[in-house]
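Model it.
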Amino acid sequence: MHAFSFHNPCQIEFGAGQIAKLASLIPAQARVLLLYGGGSIKRNGAYAQISAALSQHHWREFSGIEPNPEYETLMQAVEFARSEQLDYIVAVGGGSVIDGAKFVAAAVPHQGDCWLIIGNRVPLKSALPLAAVLTLPATGSESNFASVISRRETQDKLSFKNPLVFPKLAILDPTLTYSLPARQVGNGVVDAFVHTIEQYLTYPNEARVQDRLAEGILQTLIEIGPITLAEPENYAARANLMWAANQALYGMVGLGQPQDWASHAMGHELTMLFGLDHARTLAIVLPALWRYRFASKAAKLTQYGRRVWGLEGNDQDVAYAAIEATEAFFRQMGLATSLSLYDIDPQAAADGVATQLIRHNRLKLGENLDLTPEDCRAILITAA
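Modeled.
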């Protein structure tokens, strides 16, 4: 196990009705920016509950944050917050809204080119405090310090990390997920699944606690994934999905572990180039990556197959069967595992992603930093 440091300052309030705690947990003198996407928070009851909780606070709202939040829209929110002298953000939605809120929190007090915040190209001196009300479990963004932002003008989808944008508070109410479309639920399950895999399925590293945490999250998602689709108002299933997705990227799973994230690097480029949902890119790329990197990942694939899927047989057969079981699970969640099923030409995808990775200087990916853009091209060609 590698050396590590860990700190997570986010206060989590989990369960039905916890939005009401915003009234006491947000400072009374705060001038609040309510940041959200479309109209779903009014349909699922979150907006009404937040309005009631903030009835004694000064607050204004800004809506329209896109899936894969866009820099141009977020800068409008930054200017709105500055003009209204708002100094506390409440982000309501899934990972996209919360990621966008982290950028806004960092950008409002920043002097200079805010785009340089992305990629950690300038130091941050401060950020507005942030509370997150989660309505779409998938990314764990509600209690970590990472954010992914898109800029369509330049075809960039890039990340930044900074402890200053840790949410101070996260409200996790599973009942807010009851009205989600099946597509978003399936995406959320797969997103959380692959987030866990990226930190787990590399090579054995004697991080036994972290391995068991990862395997527990994966088994939970496999167990409750079909239930969340079949029974939208099954509180136990939705609660376990919400907590599994949170814990996948809370920070504990990857401590002291080698981590991959090559599937995410390729997936981000596929989203920008072809408009695919983030989770759907991961369902395509991950099995193809595993087959391409089978030799270096065989030991962990075998462990994963035996412990998570309960597979038996010789090591190689178990490892290959684990890949097939994962693909079948993704399809069960409603996600295709090949580019052609989205009418995307594999050669065009491979060439486009390789070009983007070179442009973004992503020249060495994977747990061993030995996966090149040419390797990524080869992986995507096989994801036909």
